[in-house]
Specification:
Structural class: alpha+beta
Strand order of the largest sheet: 3-4-5-6
Mean pLDDT: 91
Number of helices: 10
GO biological process, one term: bacterial-type flagellum assembly
Family: Belongs to the flagella basal body rod proteins family.
Helix content: 55-70%
Protein name: Flagellar hook-associated protein 1
Largest sheet: 4 strands, antiparallel
Number of domains: 2
GO cellular component, one term: bacterial-type flagellum hook
Low-confidence stretches: none
Order of helices and strands: HEEHHHHEEEEEEEHEHEHHH
GO molecular function: structural molecule activity
Shape: elongated
Length: 463
């Protein structure tokens, strides 16, 4: 049968349990604004009844309550979805931001862009057609041509500057990835050890989840959970973290440790017990940067180089067909390095008398060739197509980013509903635990009064 003091123990277990409930609710409230904090939930269990001897019967009605566990309110599938969508958003944000920078630098349409400079350049040839012998008109042609070359140089420098920024950022992000991978492996080890000795690992798990999310955002990393609870992380299908071991991600070729280009395609490798090449394309920030540096920006620069090459060659050919003020055949009007036309375009002559405006030798008042030079080539249309194509790409990426941002926000809202702290709910839990604690204390008082009556107010032994 139950002992007289069993109710005291029942009340004691209730006090202890409700104190833990107060602690859990208080901790949730305290961390309501903590980024990455996962709400804790207290799970109780009825205390197991006493085991009595054979042929005996336990006539009690419970031995109180105990703490079964304090759970983190996580959904592994939802966590995985959040990491996947965040990786996609980081990729598109990185790409969109860089393309917007380049698009702003192109400045089309605008008074300082290449299109405006090209229009002014053609206008100078038209003015020279009307006054082929005028020194001012000839100098204006050279000045407008130099302005056109400068506008092209500005655009090239803008693209090159963005490439340099992306390379340097790539080096920095790779370093951050390696730091996060090492910390995650350390947390794997700490959590495993803490689980063995029964310590609470909730905070460590929050930190590990945050690192897994960071790796997804930066490298498109995929995290899987082992049967023993440790995380494995892969980048491009190659192990970066395996249990308690962390590998090192490195830029194998394409970018030097100082952020300079080495002239080779950008490749990656992970060293975890030996170097392993990482297949591309990748996700996350480094995936976006890799795509920008390997495809998008080089493609635009190549297109601009082709426009400049075709334009300069056409103008030079037409200029060579005319005659200068002294009656000599015209030479090259533009000069450039065939390996880098847009960045090196320059006006080949500085003397206005050498401008081959005439279409016949000795025709000092003839502006026939100047008229042809004013319309030579298809640079206007070619450049417009190049810029329009780039602008369409910028718009497409921005739309994708907006759509991905909306999807990610929706998934994050689901995660917050599952794992985030709801202050209204925690307040209810807090009040409930407080009243339950008061009730348990009242039970303890009632039992104490009963025992006092039993001990001090019954019987005459000892009087």
């Amino acid at each position: 049968m139950t002992g007289t003091f069993s109710s005291v123990n029942t009340a004691l277990t209730a006090l202890r349990y409700q104190r833990v409930a107060l602690d859990v609710a208080g901790n949730n409230i305290a961390n309501a604004a903590t980024k990455g904090y996962v709400r804790r939930s207290l799970v109780g269990e009825s205390m197991e009844a006493s085991h009595v001897a054979l042929w005996s019967r336990y006539d009690g009605y419970g031995d109180g309550v105990g703490v079964a566990s304090v759970n983190r309110m996580v959904d592994p599938l939802l966590d995985r979805r959040v990491r996947r969508e965040e990786a996609g958003l980081s990729y598109l944000q990185t790409t969109s931001t860089a393309l917007q920078h380049v698009d702003n630098g192109i400045g089309e349409p605008g008074p300082n862009g290449v299109a405006a400079a090209l229009s002014a350049y053609r206008g100078a040839w038209h003015d020279l057609t009307l006054n082929p012998g005028g020194d001012a008109a000839r100098q204006q042609v050279l000045s407008r041509a130099a302005t056109l070359a400068d506008a092209i140089h500005t655009q090239v420098n803008n693209v090159a500057g963005e490439e340099a920024d992306q390379r340097l950022r790539l080096v920095n992000v790779v370093g951050e990835i390696n730091t996060a991978a090492a910390e995650l492996a350390d947390l794997n080890r700490e959590i495993l050890a803490a689980d063995v000795n029964g310590s609470d690992t909730s905070t460590l798990r929050d930190q590990r989840d945050a690192l897994a999310l960071q790796l997804a955002q930066q490298a498109g990393a995929v995290t899987t959970v082992r049967s023993d609870g440790m995380f494995d992380v892969t980048v491009g299908g190659v192990d970066l973290v395996s249990g308690r071991q962390a590998g090192t991600l490195a830029i194998a070729t394409g970018v030097t440790p100082t952020g300079d280009a080495d002239g080779n395609p950008i490749t990656f490798q992970i060293d975890l017990g030996g170097p392993t090449a990482v297949p591309t394309p990748l996700g996350g920030e480094i995936g976006g940067m890799h795509h920008l540096l390997s495809d998008t920006l080089p493609t635009y620069r190549a297109g601009l180089d082709q426009v400049v090459r075709d334009f300069a060659d056409t103008v030079n050919a037409q200029h060579a067909a005319g005659y200068d003020l002294a009656g000599n055949a015209g030479g090259a009007f533009f000069a450039y390095d065939p390996a880098d036309p847009a960045a090196t375009l320059s006006v080949a002559i500085t003397d206005g008398d050498l401008v081959a405006a005439a279409s016949v030798a000795g025709g000092t008042l003839d502006g026939g060739n100047a008229d042809l030079l004013g319309t030579a080539g298809t640079a206007d249309a070619d450049y417009q197509r190049l810029v329009n194509s780039f602008g369409s790409q910028v718009d497409a990426v921005d739309r994708q980013r907006a759509n991905q941002a909306a999807l990610t926000a929706s998934i994050q809202a689901s995660w917050e509903q599952q794992a985030g702290v709801n202050l209204d709910e925690e307040t209810v839990n807090l009040v409930s635990a407080q009243h339950a604690y008061e009730a348990a204390a009242r039970l303890m008082t009632a039992v104490d009064e009963m025992l006092d009556t039993l001990i001090n107010r019954t019987g005459i032994v000892g009087r």
